[in-house]
Amino acid sequence: MNQENGKAKDPTTIKMVIEQYEEGAGIYEIQWLNVRKFLMDFDIKRNVDGNKPNEIVFGGTKGLDDWGYDEILPLSKRKLQHEILLFSQTKILIHCSDIKIRKIKT
What's the whole-model pTM score? Predict the structure, then answer.
Protein backbone atom coordinates (compact mmCIF):
# COMPACT_ATOMS: atom_id res chain seq x y z
CA MET A 1 0.00 0.00 0.00
CA ASN A 2 1.46 3.33 -1.00
CA GLN A 3 -0.75 6.29 -0.16
CA GLU A 4 1.19 9.37 -1.13
CA ASN A 5 -0.57 12.38 0.34
CA GLY A 6 2.00 15.02 -0.54
CA LYS A 7 3.03 15.40 3.12
CA ALA A 8 4.45 12.05 4.16
CA LYS A 9 8.18 11.59 3.62
CA ASP A 10 7.99 7.77 3.53
CA PRO A 11 4.42 6.86 2.55
CA THR A 12 4.84 3.14 1.91
CA THR A 13 3.29 0.62 4.32
CA ILE A 14 3.53 -3.15 3.94
CA LYS A 15 0.92 -5.42 5.55
CA MET A 16 1.12 -9.18 6.09
CA VAL A 17 -1.49 -11.49 7.59
CA ILE A 18 -0.05 -14.45 9.50
CA GLU A 19 -1.79 -17.48 10.96
CA GLN A 20 -0.06 -19.03 13.94
CA TYR A 21 0.18 -22.84 14.03
CA GLU A 22 -1.03 -23.60 17.53
CA GLU A 23 -4.74 -24.33 17.64
CA GLY A 24 -6.62 -21.25 18.77
CA ALA A 25 -3.50 -19.05 18.66
CA GLY A 26 -5.12 -16.74 16.13
CA ILE A 27 -4.41 -14.68 13.06
CA TYR A 28 -2.27 -11.55 13.21
CA GLU A 29 -1.64 -8.56 10.99
CA ILE A 30 1.85 -7.08 10.87
CA GLN A 31 2.41 -3.60 9.43
CA TRP A 32 5.77 -2.13 8.56
CA LEU A 33 5.46 1.66 8.43
CA ASN A 34 7.44 4.18 6.39
CA VAL A 35 9.21 1.49 4.39
CA ARG A 36 12.39 2.60 2.64
CA LYS A 37 13.62 -0.78 1.45
CA PHE A 38 11.87 -4.07 0.71
CA LEU A 39 13.69 -7.10 -0.70
CA MET A 40 12.38 -10.62 -1.12
CA ASP A 41 14.51 -13.41 -2.50
CA PHE A 42 12.00 -16.13 -3.49
CA ASP A 43 12.89 -19.00 -5.80
CA ILE A 44 10.47 -21.95 -5.87
CA LYS A 45 13.30 -24.18 -7.13
CA ARG A 46 15.00 -23.98 -3.69
CA ASN A 47 11.89 -25.40 -1.99
CA VAL A 48 13.03 -29.03 -2.15
CA ASP A 49 13.47 -32.01 0.17
CA GLY A 50 17.06 -33.01 0.93
CA ASN A 51 16.33 -36.58 -0.15
CA LYS A 52 14.83 -35.44 -3.49
CA PRO A 53 16.83 -32.35 -4.56
CA ASN A 54 15.29 -32.27 -8.06
CA GLU A 55 11.65 -32.33 -6.91
CA ILE A 56 9.88 -29.24 -5.58
CA VAL A 57 8.02 -30.16 -2.38
CA PHE A 58 4.21 -30.33 -2.42
CA GLY A 59 4.27 -29.71 -6.17
CA GLY A 60 4.94 -26.02 -5.53
CA THR A 61 1.53 -25.48 -3.89
CA LYS A 62 2.99 -24.40 -0.55
CA GLY A 63 4.01 -21.01 -1.94
CA LEU A 64 6.44 -18.95 0.12
CA ASP A 65 6.41 -21.57 2.92
CA ASP A 66 6.41 -21.12 6.67
CA TRP A 67 8.11 -18.45 8.76
CA GLY A 68 11.29 -19.91 10.22
CA TYR A 69 13.22 -17.14 11.99
CA ASP A 70 13.30 -13.38 12.17
CA GLU A 71 15.44 -10.64 13.64
CA ILE A 72 14.76 -6.94 14.21
CA LEU A 73 17.79 -4.66 14.48
CA PRO A 74 18.24 -0.87 14.70
CA LEU A 75 19.65 0.76 11.55
CA SER A 76 19.71 4.26 13.01
CA LYS A 77 17.82 6.32 15.58
CA ARG A 78 14.75 6.31 13.32
CA LYS A 79 14.99 3.15 11.23
CA LEU A 80 14.69 -0.58 11.89
CA GLN A 81 15.73 -3.58 9.85
CA HIS A 82 13.50 -6.66 9.95
CA GLU A 83 14.99 -9.77 8.40
CA ILE A 84 12.70 -12.79 7.99
CA LEU A 85 13.91 -16.22 6.91
CA LEU A 86 11.35 -18.74 5.65
CA PHE A 87 11.81 -22.52 5.57
CA SER A 88 11.90 -22.36 1.76
CA GLN A 89 15.16 -20.37 2.12
CA THR A 90 13.29 -17.23 1.07
CA LYS A 91 14.73 -14.12 2.70
CA ILE A 92 12.64 -10.98 3.30
CA LEU A 93 14.38 -7.75 4.29
CA ILE A 94 12.45 -4.63 5.31
CA HIS A 95 13.81 -1.24 6.41
CA CYS A 96 11.11 0.82 8.14
CA SER A 97 10.47 3.29 10.95
CA ASP A 98 7.99 1.22 12.97
CA ILE A 99 6.38 -2.22 13.18
CA LYS A 100 2.83 -2.79 14.44
CA ILE A 101 1.34 -6.17 15.27
CA ARG A 102 -2.31 -6.77 16.08
CA LYS A 103 -4.47 -9.82 16.55
CA ILE A 104 -7.30 -9.82 14.01
CA LYS A 105 -8.91 -13.21 14.71
CA THR A 106 -8.85 -15.80 17.47
Answer: 0.76
